[in-house]
Please model this.
Amino acid sequence: MNRAADNFANRRFAIAEDAPVYAISVAAQLAGLHPQTLRQYDRLGLLSPTRVGGRNRLYSGRDIARLQEIAELSAQGLSIEGVRRVLELQAEVERLRAVLREKDQRESSTALVPWRRTK
Model:
């Protein structure tokens, strides 16, 4: 390899977790599912990938993690409605945790600090 190729090969590309970059075939392979299963989850509202050109679905890393979670819950015997409910409850827990974090930050930032006059 030449120097330019070495430099290119050694670069690290950071892809945001929520960036829609994976086509359905790649997302299905990464999630260990069939592309038709991904289409079904989309139709059922369990996952909503980004649409490009009105038709093509693009999945993010976060979408793939969710696909794996859906597949795991389904493999444990939960129905689609059970999976939907678990995902809703997880989202609610995360929302409430964010509210608590914000509240804690607000309370800690308004704490009184004794002031002493220096001479």
Q: What stands out?
A: The mean pLDDT is 87. The domain at 16-109 is CATH 1.10.1660.10 (Multidrug-efflux Transporter Regulator; Chain: A; Domain 2). The two ends are 68 Å apart (CA to CA). Residues 80-109 form the longest helix (30 residues).
